[in-house]
Every structure is written in structure tokens, then in C-alpha cells.
Amino acid sequence: MKMMMSSGRTPEQGAQLYYKDTPEYSRETSYCFLHPMDCMEIGVEEADHVLITSTAGATVFSVRESPETPEGVVFIPCGPHANFILHEKTHATGAPDFKGMEVEVEPTDRPLESAWDLMEHLGGLRYEVPEGIVLPGAEKGEKVVQHAACPLCGCLCDDIELHVKDGVVTEVVNGCLLSAGKFCSKGRMISPIERQGDKWVETDFDDAVKKVAEMFVNAKRPLFYGWSGTSTEAMHIGLEIAEEIGAVMDNCSSECHGPTIMAVQEVGHPGCTLGQIKNRADVIVYWGCNPIAAHPRHLSRYSTFSTGAFREEGRGNRTVIVVDIRESETAKLADIFVQVKPGGDFALFNALRACVRGERDVIPETVAGVERNVIFKLADILLSARFGSFFTGIGLTQSRGKYKNVRAGIELVDELNRHTKYTLTPLRGHWNVDGTNQMFSLAAGYPYAVDYSRGIVHYNPGETSGVDILAQHEADAVLIIGTDLGAHFPHATVEHLANINTIVLDPFISLSTAVAKIHIPVASVGIDAEGTAYRLDGVPIHVKKAFNTDMPSDEVILTKILEEVRRLKAERK
Ligand SMILES: Nc1nc2c(c(=O)[nH]1)N[C@H]1C(S)=C(S)[C@@H](COP(=O)(O)OP(=O)(O)OC[C@H]3O[C@@H](n4cnc5c(=O)[nH]c(N)nc54)[C@H](O)[C@@H]3O)O[C@H]1N2
Ligand SMILES: Nc1nc2c(c(=O)[nH]1)N[C@H]1C(S)=C(S)[C@@H](COP(=O)(O)OP(=O)(O)OC[C@H]3O[C@@H](n4cnc5c(=O)[nH]c(N)nc54)[C@H](O)[C@@H]3O)O[C@H]1N2
Ligand code: SF4
Ligand SMILES: [Mo]
Predict the structure, then answer these.
(1) Inter-axis angle of helices 232-245 and 554-572, to 10 degrees?
(2) Engineered SS bond to 208: which of 2, 137, 192, 561, CB 3.0-4.6 Å?
(3) How many C-beta atoms lie closer than 10 Å to residue 337's C-beta?
């Protein structure tokens, strides 16, 4: 049966992000959610297997019956299984079609494959972290760290209490499930490894740094990608290396909220801090985002459930609207859930805009699957707000229309601001992805997709963005830092990574390890390293370390690479 694939966050997938080498993670990312009517038509039941095929590839998924998923759509948790069948087109935006690609779904008896299996199909090699790893130089004794910041999602909650014993976090107070998953992960690596044919060989830090610097100096089209999982200080050193060797420097925005940035460049950003929303917002709209799964404490700490100076009753003082293609976990908590057809947001934003303008007579019977009287009711509620807040997600940036959807959303907010006060805040993903845009803009003048190869900075998402450069097979050496492209990039791009000089800088084992030539482990910001990060509303926060170790930080390794690059360049002059 022909269907539309849409992938996104689930709470369970998020809780396993720091356990990608385990069967539990593979289980969570190989589910596919199908409406019971579609199950009947395909001829499958709960837990049966289906083969999902696209122009990019085919793999097996386990069925979960889900009345919340609209008919004709197959919802897959974000991860390596979805991306094994994802094509690499970005339609000149840098962001692939994570939400909206045609696939064929049919019953199968074939077994499920693990994330490692998929990486090996693409030319990778699995690596097993030895059990019982002890971080070198880990601080002895017990302590409690107050006001720690959580280095996971864009909420960057800075009220976390960490209980530490002998260099291990034993308890995370105030953190959500995702937070605990990271702080307590056992997936740390301590020694650099190098792939030699079909085996992994341990090496030392100095040797690894020398080899990496040499690869980058010799590369024709180096790409440094990621950065949203590390400190802003580390990014700055990365930008220096990129400028030194004429690399492309891109960050996770390009596959994520890059289209939001493109929209902001066109029509501006009516933003504010989360504090304003907590204290003032009486109408809250979550559009194309699902914070219960992706930003679990957002509702309680900053918006829906939080009390504020002018919102003393919290939830009782706020009307909550969710616009999504499926009845997400967040939709279940809303006062009003509006189910839009996939890719229909542009039309719906503009219909609302017409209503706010007083042009209700132009609205047809239904717009993108939403009835006219629902649109009128929505417009009335929006107009009744004293302070309204839109939160937008990647349901807008990764579906059909991409940045045009966000542009239409900002224009609706502009229209509403003629009548009352409204703001729009993108629910940025990683704990420091906003920091990437701040630091890249500061150092290079552009927020992402920065190309230094011409001697001056060139920026053109869709051309100088990570997915596109890999899809065109341009890159011959890639640094993956603070991201996991093995898990999260489309099929063909991961296959290309396995064929070139791919270097990973990551404290933890990741699926990118499988496609790397060298993986250099580092200290983890927020655990045994510190630095600056920017919350999703652009507020900078100092991320403390929980304890000391002898592991070198990203900053230390990048500085060594920079020195070695400069030495090699001087030698070759
Ligand atoms: N659990 C967990 N949490 C995470 C992450 C994770 O991997 N796991 N990753 C982090 C990152 S990098 C990011 S960017 C954030 C993302 O956080 P969100 O923006 O919440 O991301 P998604 O769950 O991918 O998509 C949000 C919603 O968009 C809906 N959607 C799909 N297509 C459309 C459409 O055409 N129109 C509309 N209106 N909605 C649509 C989906 O049904 C989904 O409920 O999460 C962060 N937090
Ligand atoms: N199918 C599908 N695929 C998607 C999406 C989707 O919706 N559907 N969403 C896309 C989006 S929006 C995004 S942003 C990406 C998200 O994808 P990624 O950026 O790949 O997210 P994570 O897997 O959390 O990877 C973060 C990495 O940073 C590492 N890390 C943690 N702390 C540190 C540190 O201190 N230093 C360093 N160097 N590394 C550290 C972690 O170990 C981990 O490997 O996925 C994209 N892929
Ligand atoms: S909501 Fe986000 S930042 Fe806050 S504790 Fe959970 S994962 Fe960490
Ligand atoms: Mo993201």
C-alpha cells in the first residue's frame, strides 16, 4: 500500500538516545505507527512485521496500531531505521523530507534489523564499548551538584540536582527521562580508536590528533558538521580550523530549524524570552511540535502548567491549542486540537490570517482538512488573547513548504500584533543549537552552512549545507562533532561517510562511530567538561561540570588539531 512516511520524536526513543548500541534503542526506532484501518487494508496486526520501501532503500519495521495516526500516514520514530529509507533531497533548503516522503508498506516475514546491522549495510563496522569503563582521573568521593544545566534539549533546564559518586552520576533530581538517560549513560569511551580494515585498533590521543590534522589539511572539500552538542567555546575553535583550511562549517540547524532561520531572514522574528511567556501568556499554540516527547519539561517549567506573575493559576489561566497531523502526546493535553493534513500548514496559517484581517468570506468549506467553523473559532480565540505565544516545531520545517510554512506563521503573528500582543518561539532541538547560530553569526556572519573554501565566507543553504554536500559526494573528509549522523542523516549520505575520511569527536559511542575512520572520545559538556550554551530563546547559560576527569574536552582536542594544522601548513609553504 502506498503511504506517506512521517518521522519524529517519541519519549521512548529520546530516553534511548545515549544507548544507541543497545537492542532497546533498535527496538524503539524500528516501530512503525499505523492507523487500525490501514493495518486492516495491509493485512497486519500489532507486532507484525512490515517491509517499508522507498526510492532510497527498504527495511523491516514492527507494527504498532495507533488510532492517533491519520490514515495514509506511517509514523516512524526518528532514528536509523527511518533514515535507512529516506532520500537525500532537501529542495534547496538543507533540510531533508523527514516529514513527508512516499513509501510502499507491505507485510513481511523478514526479521527486524538492528541499528548496527543497518550501519554495516552502509559500509560501517560495529564497535563494542568494553564493559565497566572507568573514566581516567575520575574524582573520588560523593557530592551533590546544585543548579546544574541539563545538556539535552533546547530547554536547557538549569535547576538540575546531580548526585555523584566516584565519577558516576547516580541520581538526577528535577531532570526528565531524557536528562537522566544522558547523565547516567554507560556508553562513554576513553581511548581513541582507528579503523584498520575490518577491525578497530586503539590508539593514543597525540597520534589520533596528528592523523586527523593531516587528513583535513590534505582534503579537497572538508566538512565540519554538528556542534549543537558541544560548548560555544569549542565551536569558536572549530571555526578557526575551518577558516584555516577552507572547510565548510555547518551545524544541526540546517537539517532542523534552518528553514525557520530562512523565514526569519525574510520576515523577521517576533520573539521574547521564556520568562515573558511564563509570566504573561494566556493563549499558547504548539504548532508542528510535540514538547511532551521532545522538550518534556517545557510545559511545566516555562509555559502551559507553570504559574507566573500575571498567571497565578498556571494552567487555569491559559488556553492551549495544538496543531499537528496526528493526535500527539501534547495534543491530548490541549483545550483544542486541530488536525491539519500533512503539509497543509501554509494554507491554514493564511486562512487564519485572512480571518484576523476580517476577510472571513473568502474561507472555503475546509482548508487543509480543517473545517471553516473551526478556523473561525480558532481566530476568535487567538484574537481574545492578552498575550499569545506560538511555539513552532520541525513539523513545519521538515514537511512540504518548509521555510514558507514558518514564514506564513510569522506573518500570522504580525497580523495578530495589530490587535493584541503575540510572539513566536521556535522550539529549538539541542541544548546548544541556538548557540551554534550565535557563534557562527558572530565569527562568520552567517548562522549555519558557512563555506570558507573561497577565501571569503559563502552561505547558501541547499548548496553549502551538510546533507547536500554529502549527497553530492563533494566532501572527502568530515568531522562529526556533537551530532550523530549515522543515526540521523539520510541513507546515501551515511553510505558516503563510510567511504571517506570520517572523524568523530564524541564522549559516547554513537552510530557515527561505525562509519568513522577515527573516533576520538572527549569529556562531555555538563558531565566532566563545562562551557557556555544558549537556551532555545537565546539566553546564554553556563553549563557546569558535575565532576573532574582527565578526559580532554572538545576544546582541548580542537586546539591541538588547530596547532597541528598550522604546523603542517607552515611546513608545506
Ligand atoms: N525524545 C526526543 N526529544 C528530542 C529529540 C529526540 O531525538 N528525542 N531531539 C531534539 C531535537 S534535535 C529537536 S529538533 C526537537 C524536535 O522537537 P519537535 O519539533 O517536537 O519534533 P518532532 O517530534 O520531530 O515533530 C513534531 C510534530 O510535528 C508533527 N508533524 C509532522 N508533519 C507535520 C505537518 O505537516 N504539519 C504539522 N503541523 N505538524 C506535523 C509530528 O506529528 C510531530 O508530533 O526535539 C528535541 N528533543
Ligand atoms: N528520521 C528522522 N531523522 C531525523 C529527524 C527526524 O525528525 N526524523 N530530525 C533531524 C534533526 S531535527 C536533528 S537536529 C538530528 C538530531 O540528531 P543528532 O544531532 O544526531 O542528535 P543526537 O543523536 O542526540 O546526537 C548528539 C551527539 O552529541 C554527542 N555529545 C553529547 N555531549 C557531547 C559533548 O560534550 N561533546 C561532543 N563532541 N559530543 C557530545 C552525543 O553523544 C551524540 O552522539 O536528527 C535529524 N534526523
Ligand atoms: S526538558 Fe530538556 S533540558 Fe529540561 S531536563 Fe528534560 S531534556 Fe533536560
Ligand atoms: Mo533538531
Answers:
(1) 10
(2) 192
(3) 18
pLDDT at residue 573 greater than cutoff 90: no
The chain-wide mean pLDDT, for the chain, equals 98
The span from the CA of 68 to the CA of 339, in Å, is 10
Domain residues of the chain, as ranges? 2-121, 188-256+431-571, 258-426
- Distance between CA atoms of residues 481 and 458, nearest Å: 22
- Cβ 20 vs Cβ 511: under 8 Å: yes
Going by alpha carbons, the residue nearest to atom 5 of ligand 3 is: 175
CA dist., res. 478 & res. 225, Å (int): 7
- pLDDT at residue 145 in the model: 98
Nearest CA, atom 19, ligand 1: 393
Positive or negative, the CA dihedral 436, 437, 438, 440 is: positive
Distance 430 CA to ligand 4 centre (A): 6
Q: Which CATH architecture has domain 188-256+431-571?
A: 3-Layer(aba) Sandwich (3.40)
For residue 229, give the ligand nearest its CA: 2
pLDDT in tens, 358-396: 999 999 999 999 999 999 999 999 999 999 999 999 999
What are 485-524's pLDDT values in tens digits? 999 999 999 999 999 999 999 999 999 999 999 999 999 9
How far, in Å, is the centroid of ligand 3 from the Cα of 530? 17
Q: Is the pLDDT of residue 551 over 90?
A: yes
CATH topology for the 258-426 domain: Dimethylsulfoxide Reductase; domain 2 (3.40.228)
Find cell 490514515 and name the residue: 71
pTM of structure: 0.98
